[in-house]
Amino acid sequence: MSEKVSAKVDAKKETKRILFGLIGAVIMAVNIKTFVRAGGLYPGGFNGVTLLFQTICDRFFDITVPFSPISLALNAIPAIISFKAIGKKFTVVTSCMIVATSILTDIVPAVPITEDILLISIFGGLINGAAISISLIGGTSTGGTDFIAIYFAEKKNKDVWNYILLGNAVVLIIAGFLFGWDKALYSIIFQYTSTQMIHLLYQNYKKVTLFVVTENAEAVYQAISEVTNHSATEFSATGMYSNEKRKMIYSVVSTVEAKMLTRKVMEADAHAFVNIVKTDTLLGRFYQENNY
After folding, report:
1. CA dist., res. 124 & res. 132, Å (int)
2. How far is CA 270 from CA 88, 105, 211, 256, 260, in A?
3. pLDDT tens column, 119-130
4. Cα 49 to the chain's mean position, in Å?
5. With contact defined as beta carbons under 8 Å apart, do 90 and 82 qualify?
6. Does domain 207-279 have CATH number 3.90.180.10?
7. Do the record's keywords include Transmembrane helix (predicted)?
8. List of residues 6+ apart from 3 with CB closer than 8 A
9. Contact (CB, 8 A) for 142 and 31
10. What are the backbone dihedrals phi and psi of residue 288, each rounded to the nearest 5 degrees, phi first?
11. 23, 121, 252, 282: least buried by Cβ within 10 Å?
12. For residues 252 and 282, is the Cβ–Cβ distance under 8 A?
């Protein structure tokens, strides 16, 4: 790839990163002012900690604290770690998104859509998860605990969103103890809905195992290599009904790659038999494209 083409690809990637990050920041800020604060919820992560701190200052000390300085202070340490461990461009753009979200949260007017706390919990969670997913798909994030999740996904190849959900329980216990357990329990619905939305929309780190029985093993392998940059393992096989010799290709790919790869495999061998199995645990060397 020439330097000119490479620069063009990089520019397109960074434009996408910034655009998706801005969209996520706007959605996150509007969601906080429209749903989260209207329901008195605590969304988890550093936004939840910030809102909890604001509420404590307001209720017990009669002090109104702006969202921005608290949020930025809490995100500072994870951002420094992310800069070193994940990627400079990713961290810089994410930091800009954190600033944008913080400022927008302070200036966007509060316009509650409904007073039904259950509807606020469910739809607020869905929108929150969508905002996080849009940012992640674009190659950035909304900051805070996203830094932690992406670090483990990149370095440890682990999905830790559910563990982060458990970690948020500490914030909810404090909120429940201080301000009533009803809001804390509704916040659990909010966070659970948000986490499931992320699992639905963002699938880059979900893995599947691909089994392909074929007569054209080399063409199938070339398709796997071109689409995913992964290698594969070839087994000799025999059809029990026909007693004909076949080859079975085994490979592990991401869920996103599997959709395109299945089409390519069938183009390489229209008579191939393809079986895709969900992979929960994977040990050993596995190529993971770094989008950060």
Report:
1. 12
2. 44, 53, 15, 22, 15
3. 999 999 999 999
4. 20
5. yes
6. no
7. yes
8. none
9. no
10. -125, 115
11. 282
12. yes
| Type of residue numbered 244 | E
CB of 214 closer than 8 Å to CB of 273: yes
Task: Give me the chain's average pLDDT, please.
Answer: 80
Alpha helices in 62-87 (DSSP H): 67-85
Count of residues for the chain? 292
Mean pLDDT of 57-72: 84
Burial of 274 (0-12, 13-18, 19+ CB in 10 A): middle
197's CB contacts (< 8 A; 6+ apart) are 125, 126, 128, 129, 130, 132, 133
CB-based burial, 150-188: b 16+ in 10 Å, e otherwise = bbbbbeeeebbbeebbeebeebbeebbeebeeebbebbb
Which alpha helices (H) appear in the chain, and where do they start and end? 3-31, 37-39, 45-61, 67-85, 88-107, 117-137, 145-151, 161-167, 169-179, 181-201, 217-228, 255-268
For 44, residues 6+ apart whose C-beta sits below 8 A from its C-beta are 145, 164, 165, 168, 171, 172, 187, 190, 191, 194
Q: Which carries the bigger pLDDT value, residue 128 or residue 243?
A: 128
User: Phi and psi dihedrals of 141, rounded to 5?
Assistant: -155, 180
Provide the residue type at 99 as one letter. V
| Ranges in the chain annotated CATH 3.30.70.120 | 207-279
Q: Quick one: tokens of 283? A: 């040990």
Centroid of chain to Cα 161: 8
CA distance 248 to 60: 67
**Backbone angle region of 269, left / alpha / beta, with phi > 0 → left and psi within -120 to 50 → alpha:** beta
